[in-house]
Specification:
By secondary structure, the chain is an alpha+beta fold. Helices cover 29% and strands 21% of the residues. The protein has a single domain, classed as Aminopeptidase, CATH 3.40.630. Strands 1-2-3-4-5 form a five-stranded mixed beta sheet, sandwiched between helices. The chain is globular and about 40 Å long. It starts with a strand and ends in a 22-residue tail after the last helix.
């Protein structure tokens, strides 16, 4: 059996290893321990890990801009998928956002992550084809 609890920076090494071992997850320089520590401090109570036998088996990070929520790096160990773990973590993040009066959330899925896209669509998330996302890097490497 697993439990879900708030993510703390002490989970970083295990969470990072989970991200790096998961196809379809892009790990960038912005996923450094210092950056994740800032993210958790800025968004308290919005990111969660799933734990089983003292090991991190899942992660769902979430934050907001004051009006919209953003989910990032929602991951469950492949061998433990289809057991409701991701659904439970996502529900915790959405409930925590809703408690802040944030009822609309976004997430990004790499175009090559067919399994991830299928998961989100099966959960009622709507693919947006009416907007285009742009990014800009200022004074940092291309992998930031």
């Amino acid at each position: 059996m697993y439990q879900i609890r708030e993510m703390v920076i002490e989970d970083y090494d295990a969470v990072r290893a989970l991200w790096e071992a998961t196809p379809g997850v892009s790990v960038r320089d912005a996923d450094s321990q210092a950056s994740i520590a800032r993210y958790l401090l800025r968004n308290p109570g919005l990111s969660f890990v799933a734990i089983q036998d003292d090991a991190v088996i899942g992660c769902a990070m979430s934050g907001h801009d004051g009006r919209r929520g953003y989910l990032q790096h929602v991951v469950v160990l492949p061998a433990l998928r289809r057991r409701g773990i991701a659904n439970a973590m996502v529900e915790r993040t959405l409930a925590a956002l809703e408690a802040l009066d944030i009822c609309k959330s976004y997430l990004e899925v790499l175009c090559t992550n067919v399994e991830g896209a299928a998961y989100w669509e099966s959960r009622g998330w709507q693919r947006r084809d009416d907007i285009t996302r742009y990014s800009f890097i200022r004074n940092a490497g291309a992998n930031c």
